[in-house]
Amino acid sequence: MEHIHPTALVAAGARLAPDVRVGPFTVIGPAVEVDSGTIIASHVVIVGRTRIGTGNRIFQFASVGEIPQDRKYNGEPTATVIGANNVIREYVTIHAGTAQDRGTTTIGDRNLLLAYSHIAHDCVIGNDTTFSNNAQLAGHVVIGDFAVLGGFIGVHQFCRVGAHAMLAAGSIVRQDVPPFVTASGYPARPHGTNSEGLRRRGFSESDIAAIRNAYKMLYREKLSLEEARKAIATAAEKAPVLTALAQFLETPGRGIIR
Q1: Is 95 in contact with 105 (CB distance < 8 Å)?
Q2: Using one digit for the tens of pLDDT, what is the confidence trace for 111-153?
């Protein structure tokens, strides 16, 4: 308990690993679990059925696990699950799930959530994503691994943003953004592939070239969406890097940005 500031309010039922640090005036509810190595700053509120993994850092004034902003919510025991080694900056808000969907809002590992980001109910965030300041997700959104969301963006409920996609600042996303694609605007439109980001993550030049060719099939060869799907699925047989894109296009959603 020497790591918990005397002004913090930690409910009796909360389960904190012995080395968890809790700053002044933080409030932690009775159903919260926090694993080892996590640092929670001052004036943080963590409530609900919330599980936080190892090595996270949560900055001042963040709110984690609060009930969803959803008219359908009627007090059901939903949850929030956060993985390991995430950075959750000032004034980030993360809400629990709803009984009408998954019931759980899920965040993976090594994500960087900058100040004022919002993750609404039932969202699923992968690993290694970056949310710039004021990136806002409506409910039921899925964000793939290594996606980058620029500042002041908004993502419509039930949209998907694929792995390694990049959304420019101020974008409004109303349909799904496929993996590897960069997008911007209101509404967001495709503007090429995230080639520089892929190079930084160790993708080979041959894989980047295959992704560019798939992008041309999807957006520049005047193919119908079904024709592009089939062409990319065929290309993925020789270029496995395209498997994620082919699977994304096969999964029903809100339709992709075109």
Answers
A1: yes
A2: 999 999 999 999 999 999 999 999 999 999 999 999 999 999 9
CB 98 within 8 A of CB 68: yes
pTM summary value: 0.96
For 39, the domain range is 9-140
Is the domain of 132 the same as that of 206?
A: no
17 and 136 together in one domain? yes
Tell me if 15 sits within 8 A of 22, measured CB to CB.
Answer: no
What is the token pair recorded at 55? 């090595």
Rounded Cα distance between 15 and 209, Å, is: 49
Both 127 and 20 in a single domain? yes
The CATH number assigned to the domain holding 224 equals 1.20.1180.10
**Could you give the 3-state DSSP secondary structure of residue 216?**
helix
Separation between Cα atoms, residue 210 and residue 216, nearest integer Å: 10
What's the rounded Cα separation, in Å, for the pair 216 and 186?
A: 22
Contact 25, 43 (CB under 8 A): yes
Q: What confidence tier does 226 reach under pLDDT thresholds 50, 70, 90?
A: very high
Residues belonging to the active site: 121-122, 139
